[in-house]
């Protein structure tokens, strides 16, 4: 309960009493309370997003020629680590890798099920005529290959294709001793 | 028809004959033809997006401290203009402005109708008790104000709040003599 009040103070900037009243009115439903606070004019617009606490940094890479650009958020646990040279270097490597290797997702879990189904359909068509038991194995291999193409963590690291990007991150994790996660990225290609 | 073949050559990298056959099979349906080409293993994955022709550049801005970052695509008509100092300067100003002013959309047209409805509902609640005819006017004013808060082109320019961002762009258009458009942007705030 105290946590909820603290969270709402940070996210809305409203006063303690206003928040308590809003929470009571909303039966402790956070989203409803925010709406009540906004209706009362007490909450400040869209400040919330800027205040949630997570450490790390935002890095960018613009490829020479300015036709490809990348923005990436790399998270760690403490502000201290985010200011180390090792962490900054990792963020730079990742931004460069994303520019070069065009991932569509960070993790395998983020690939939508429909997309995987569509891929499977295409592979099945390519493999038409093969016996069932061979088909299954080849299909698994092809899907694994697809993940290696589109998921950042599964991609071979552009500067050293013997390792995957997740291995590069894991190396940094064991060196730095903190959990490190690629939270999100954006990659713009001119006119596409 | 010839255009379609050319487009498919660029987007799939498949051979001329393969494309003709695929188009015939697909009754000239482009998307179906691409799928056929892919099934035949002739089309290369997701190259298409990188090839559509539009000029301009991708610019980034990382705010000191690396907790806020922006990626923006600014389009113009010719490659020549994209390399001019004026155009590059405009892209830089826009990236900086986006970092500072946190727009959620580029244009008014991009604000989803549900979002506008939700805003109106909140304003109506705030104005409860006012006479109908006053209400309408105030509501229009509040919505216009909301657009100024969340739409990049409607925002007051951070370095000169007497003009809007669209005025800044229009100045550049008349100076440069080409259509200039902000195509898209991404703005990451650490942990949000």
Summarize this structure as a short list of keywords or feature phrases.
homodimer; 192 residues; alpha+beta; three-stranded antiparallel beta sheet; two-stranded antiparallel sheet; extended
Description:
Chain A is extended. In chain A, 51% of the residues lie in helices and 17% in strands. Chain A has helices at residues 2-12, 16-25, 30-39, 79-82, 85-101, 113-126, 132-150, 165-176, and strands at 55-62, 68-76, 156-157, 160-164, 181-189. Chain A has eight helices and five strands. Mean pLDDT of chain A is 88; it is low at 45-53. In chain A, strand 3 (156-157) and strand 4 (160-164) form a beta hairpin. In chain A, the strands form two sheets. A three-stranded antiparallel β-sheet of chain A has the order 1-2-5. Chain A has a two-stranded antiparallel sheet with strand order 3-4. The N and C termini of chain A lie far apart (47 Å). By secondary structure, chain A is α+β, with helices and mostly antiparallel strands. Chains A and B meet through helix 3, strand 1, strand 2, helix 6 and strand 5 of A and helix 3, strand 1, strand 2, helix 6 and strand 5 of B.
